[in-house]
Design brief:
By secondary structure, this protein is of the alpha+beta class. The protein contains seven helices and seven strands. The chain has a five-stranded mixed sheet.
Length: 269
Amino acid sequence: MSVFKRPFPLVAAIVTLLSILPACSGGRSVDPFDTIGSTPAPWDLIDADGTPAPPQAAPVRQSADTAGQSADTAAHEAAKPARLSRYNRIGRLHEIFNDSNRYQYAAGERIGIAPITGIADAYYTRRPLVRIESGRWYDLDTLTHSMPYLVPEAASLLETIGRNFADSLRRLGAEGHKFRVTSVLRTSHSVKRLRRVNRNATDSSTHQLGTTFDISYAHFNHDGKSPQISDEQLKYVLAEVLLGLRRQNRCMVKFERKSPCFHITATGL
């Protein structure tokens, strides 16, 4: 007589569980690559410039070959130069660079010279003056209302801006461009003459202290050899360089519209 034996309890439980899985998953087998909670968080839907980004798709299962190709593509993209378009997204320049003349003058008085009336007085200032000229990092424009002198801290800041600007362009594959310095040290007489043609000029101009210089954002020089990019793109590359130095408290910057330039005062920090 054969004897019917009841299955071992653990085996019975496994058989029962396997029998009900298809029903729980809508008639399909469970894929271990399914993602739980794939809906992005609200902050993931906001792009860097504050505009909504397109919804993110659920992760796609990849074979080993496809995953390897994706890794190679990502490495290739990372090796490419940065795109210039990202520089246009730092914000409204007249809002970012809006340091008033009052604060710039206070910083200038701390490290600058007393206002002078003419070039002869430049030899008897309380602080030494450094002569600046066109070179590797920038070009000095034709000066009609100022003289090419700055206190050491301002001259050093100008060199740093030029070097950082060149480094940024090199990473972008856009070497061969330099910015123009359009105004430097002014005397009280030159300020009076300038006020007749430039409404931005004031009696309390920080240019008289030897701590301030202007850099044009409307026109840049090009060597005529390397690939050339637009002045508008170069303006934003320069703006990002200035923003970085301003965040380090090394300078104060005013975005001038009437006379298109960045008005920059060294803080000496």
